[in-house]
Target: Folate receptor-like domain-containing protein
Amino acid sequence: MAPTFRSPPLEFCTEFAGFGCCSRETSEEIVKQFEDLNATIPMLESKEECMQFLKEQMCQKCSPFSGHMFTFNDKSLIPGLCNGYCQQFYSKCKTVIKYLFINSFPAFLNIQTKMSSFCNYFKPADTSYCFPDLRTNEVLQGGMTKLKSSNEKCLCLEPIQDTFMSPIQAQRPDDGTGRIFVVLLSGEISVYNSDGILISDKFFNISKRIRTRENMGGDLGFLGTSFHPNFKTNGKFYVVYTMNKTNSINTGIITRFSEFLINPPSSNQVDLDTERVILDIDVPYHHHIGGQVC
Model:
């Protein structure tokens, strides 16, 4: 699971020590990235001051607002920047900036040569979250002040994978294993542990049975799944998906609601032959089908 707002003591990103979205592992990763940069950038006149700029920016990965600040490129070390601050940073650190994303950010090579291009790229879609002005944003910081002084439990969210093709759902049955089941529109379900590590990408796959749009969009495909309340003991879970049916009245497509059985429930692969069809419904149109299973 992602860390709560009550993060552990941090020696590098001290701004967020005790309250932020950094685990020790994330903090160590930021430190390594910073040290690698420091070793890569030659001894330029502006280096020392610019490394302080970069430390401030990189540590925003620990901010409770990091999801809003790093939306334009997951590999970027720089958050969304306020225009005045960005211009100041660019003016002082232009000679350093070119070393930031040599290997991981090819598009950066085209925008680093002009201040206007650089600052336009790093301008967040919602300027309420630009750095560093969000530090003094009364609405945002007012909410954080209340949370810091309360006993409310909050969670920071973090991605476990960034290459899913049309994910539609993530399920976590109350079976004591902590497994996370990620459902794809294509008809596949993968299993991850509570740390976001892939356990099996072969848990469930009915991609050959279902009907989807060729571009993997729209309302056709694998539409939803839900685990039985007693899944821990009976291993039952339910799915709804669209499939071809020659005797369908209008479109040649039906929505099917089925039960599958996992035996034992702790297994990480489903026997597809256990399917028990509960209900077939003719699909009059290719859109607005819905499909969430409760």
